[in-house]
Amino acid sequence: MAMPAAGRPREIRLNAFDMATPGHIQQGMWTHPRDNSAGYARLEHWTGLARTLERGLFDGLFLADILGVYDVHGGGPAAALRGGVQVPLIDPLMIVPAMAAATTHLGFGVTCNTAYEPPYLFARRMSTLDHLTGGRIGWNIVTGYLDSAARALGYDAQMQHDDRYDLADEYMDAVYALWEGSWADDAVKRDAAGRVFTDPARVRRIAHAGRQFRIDAMHLCEPSPQRTPVLYQAGASDRGRAFAARHAECVFVNGTRPDVVGRLVADLRARAAPRPIQVFVGATVVVGRTAREARDLLTDYAAHADAEATLAHASASLGIDFARFGMDEPVTAGPTQAIRSNVEAMAKVAGPGWTKRRLLELSVLGSRQPPIVGDPVQVADALQAWVAEADVDGFNLSRTVMPECLEAFIELVVPVLQDRGVYKTAYAPGTYREKLFGTGARLPDTHPAARVRGW
Q: N- to C-terminal Cα distance for the chain?
């Protein structure tokens, strides 16, 4: 991203990180008596969340999603079902229009998998959301990591890790052609007197014939405010970073240690150069009015962490069945088609010969993400240290006990960041992309999608 003006600190970006399910990252928090996550299937749950985030001037709500169930731990889904580990799970795209209607500025990053939906259908869904939100939609591009998802969609198993990225590269070429190349900016006339809604000469057929996909059709939607949604990506493997460098505008990385993340960020920026990218690191915050209050909250929350649910989540994302290991038996990770970067990150954080006990010790709140705990000044200091040491642009804040974790952050931390000049005091005008980058609504000419524009 462009460096701030001399003497001016970088403005921190904030997304809430959530999922339309009882248990997202911090496993077991839904059992806390003050938590409302079990109401995930009610529309007012999401419209209320959106209003809260807009009050806190959050840039976006980043919605995770999966298409299968976590059935690696113990060889089945029982632990995930008991613990509400990302199941039951509703479709996040269906709730976005209601949240958009309840807000004016908040962006929405939705996770969608390139492996199982034809690009022609997906392109229409994204264009529809971009229209209905007034240009506030983003897409977190994922290639999948669950064999259960592949079986649910009629396959014996998922594709090999790098092959999934090869498919995703072609998928991107196909949707770019539909979003950017099918309709001219002036194709739609809305000329009632002349009885011409769309000028046929300004719409063209997309002919894509690749290894995985064939399209012979025009895009069904007229150009939406952004045409292509803001592009997020979260793969940190070598192949994932190559994909991000080509396509992503924003990259989501796991929060391990600032030095580890900093090296990853430097590599991502070098690969993407000269095209700017913004990097969001995952973070969990427990904030109180005093440091003592924050520590007490952490103790209160930690009492609800679910060890079995934590292992069910970790088994799926690491591709390791932890039920096969004793508590103090070194965990061995062979070749996996799960999230490779998670396996690498775990080894760096836990050290060689790490065990199941060590994983659970690190999972203070039911996840492997170490929480930032403190009073408002301490939390703000920690966030700014991440920005300075790891060169990240912002944070995806995962939920603990909802809604109090976000309400406390907005009430206590946001004013400190604003006083320091590192967080906005009002939204900028424009689309999601314009707010994030301060440029135009559409992808810049330096992005690979621009090459399909021919009008």
A: 29
